Amino acid sequence: MPTSAQQTRRLLFLAAGGTIAMDKDEHSGRSVVMRTAAELLACATSPENTEVRCLDAPSALRVPNRPGDLLTLARWVQQEAQAGADAVMLAQGTDTLEEVAYFMDEVWSLPIPLIFTAAMRPGWAADYDGGRNLTDAFRVAVTAPADSGVLVVMHGEIFEAWSVYKADTGTLDAFVARRGAARGQVTATDIIFPLSSSGRARFRTLPSELPTSVPILTMGIGDDAVLLDRLDLASVRGVVIAGLGAGTVPPVAYEKAVALVRSGVSVVLCSSAVSGRTAEEIYYPGAYDELRAAGIVIEDHLNARKTRIRLLLSLGLGLPYVPFGEKLG
Fold first, then answer.
1. Judging by beta carbons within 10 Å of its beta carbon (0-12, 13-18, 19+), is residue 26 exposed, middle or buried?
2. Which residue among 76, 189, 206, 293 has the highest number of C-beta atoms inside a 10 angstrom radius?
3. Where are the domains positioned within the chain?
4. How far apart are CA 7 and CA 175, in angstroms?
5. Which residue ranges of the chain lie beneath pLDDT 70?
6. Class of 216-316 per CATH?
7. Which residues, in sequence order, are bridge partners of residue 213?
């Protein structure tokens, strides 16, 4: 009888468009999504003793245009995975990769890994990276521990979904992790997983719906946050403010944020910097007391786009915003 190491691993590969699936249209000359999941699979090398089932995402789910589309995508992925899979790979576009992967990481409830990948070059380019990234994703999928949750594999690196972000619009190594965040590597012979993955609480449940209006406002020097004056408070349930550096909010903007809190809007403050804590209280003791006393929640670890995802989920589940890494409930 074959040993457990030799048993066939059932892999589910989902294709959701993006640059990785693009080729050049011979009539318009534009890069357009053409490759199916099966055609993408043909560009990659899947590990031995694997059985791969390919599915193409419905066109409406390839680029989420509303928060609710994230819920529909998550339900579809989990439904297909429950039909029988030991691991799932999802290939999609890079512009929304960090948000979709983090959303899925918070709601993923299955005891199998979910691996995201993408490409920075379309299929017609000489340096097309889709095949390599897919091959790496397959290798990670068959070796990742069952409790790995959601990982992102790009350009030979393995990232935790909460920490990865797109730092460059064009280079092949465009995706990086927040400074100090755990990450692993895919080499020619080995898979090196993050040494200290985040053993943190996750929502692990899908709300029935998500709010439609949760804007992000990035602060600048002397910012009067005039856009906050124009919010439709009948529809806006939360706001993310990306402060200057270590959580600084200009005085006029601060007063407007406080007024929003008093009107019942959830306001979460994060940093506009790509790494580091929002509240650097060791060096600025007491500097954030007034913000907290006013009801503004400080998010120390997530960037603005991921803070918004977390706020969407919190509001959808009827929960107060709990900063990343802290105990839920």
1. exposed
2. 206
3. 9-192, 216-316
4. 34
5. 1-6, 194-199
6. alpha beta
7. 236
